[in-house]
Write a structure and sequence with these properties.
Elements: E1 2-7, H1 19-26, E2 31-36, E3 49-50, E4 60-61, H2 63-72, E5 79-90, H3 93-99, E6 104-108, E7 125-128, H4 138-149, E8 182-183, E9 186-187, H5 190-194, H6 197-215, H7 217-222, H8 229-236, H9 256-262
Parallel strand pairs: 1-2, 1-6, 5-6, 5-7
Antiparallel strand pairs: 3-4, 8-9
The protein binds S-adenosylmethionine.
The site of S-adenosylmethionine has 20 residues, from strand 5.
């Protein structure tokens, strides 16, 4: 996938070209192109901003440099132009997955008071990375590039190793441990040392459910449980205060054999 970023601070992007993304770039899985739209300014002093009509604090990004820079971009395959904006749709993991279908993502990074309104016509969509205001769109573009690139086939070492990541299936990921098995009296759960694969998978799913319930009630409330979750949630609710009030959401998953057994005996 190709990422093109229109920015007046291309040097800020040195940081995302390290580690995994550096490897992905070297193996040709991703390409990052930085376009300094100041180079496309028509004025003698290469100004990219001007005072707002009607007055007010701050400077506004002028249309000409950004329109000129956009016209110079060589579009590759199925492309999409994203304007980074605190007024855009909120970004999340689902959106990251949706963006992986494109061959080429083009980012417009704002600065100062923001863009001249006419620049918005260049974008297919506007994305915000959160309900707060950044100095510029560069950090937001980096967040999106990083989170999309790691979903592309081959970018992470082990194929599909993002599948269990937090948010990929609406859950937070289970806890991780590494050696030693006992550190200052803090022990690694037995099941992780047992080598029993089926039990390990059950433990991971149960801990994911627990974490999501304890830390992100909003995500937990949106979960659609799988049949195997019945047993895990029945084990979990006595351990997690408040979980019992959601029991109606998994009761329909009770295995038929258990239902029969728990039915009251007729006389
Ligand atoms: C200082 S902000 C402009 C704020 C603007 N005056 C307002 O209050 O709506 C400058 C630029 O930073 C970027 N930016 C700021 N916050 C952002 C966010 N939460 N997500 C994405 N981009 C953001 C946008 O590109 C924006 O044009």
């Amino acid at each position: 996938m190709k990422f093109t970023v229109l920015t007046i601070f291309p040097e800020m992007f040195a940081h995302i070209q390290e580690s995994i993304l550096k490897r992905a770039k070297h193996s040709g899985l991703i390409e990052i192109e930085l376009v300094n739209f100041r180079d496309f300014a028509e004025s003698k002093h290469k100004n990219v901003d001007d005072v707002p009509y009607g007055g007010g604090a701050g400077m506004v990004l002028k249309p000409e440099p950004i329109f000129n820079a956009m016209a110079s971009v060589d579009r590759t395959g199925n492309s999409r132009t994203i304007l980074l904006s605190q007024q855009g749709q909120l970004y999340n993991q689902k959106k990251a997955h949706e963006l992986t279908v494109y061959d080429h993502l083009i980012f417009l990074c704002g600065h100062y008071e923001g863009f001249d309104e006419r620049i918005r016509t260049l974008a297919d969509e506007e994305i915000s990375i959160g309900d707060y205001v950044l100095t510029g769109g560069e950090l937001a573009a980096m967040v999106i590039i990083d989170s999309v690139a790691r979903l592309l086939p081959g970018v992470l070492g082990k194929a599909n190793s993002w599948e269990h990541d937090s948010h990929s299936q609406g859950l937070l990921e289970y806890p991780h441990y590494t050696r030693p098995p006992d550190y200052m009296g803090m022990k690694v759960p037995e099941v992780l040392l047992s080598g029993h694969h089926a039990e390990l998978e059950k433990w991971r799913r149960k801990e994911s459910l627990r974490r999501t319930f304890m830390r992100r009630r909003d995500l937990f409330e949106r979960l659609e449980f799988q049949p195997g979750d019945y047993e895990l949630l029945e084990e979990l609710w006595p351990e997690c205060p408040g979980l019992i009030s959601y029991r109606h959401k998994w009761q329909h998953l009770e295995p038929k054999s258990k239902k029969k057994k728990s039915r009251p005996m007729s006389d």
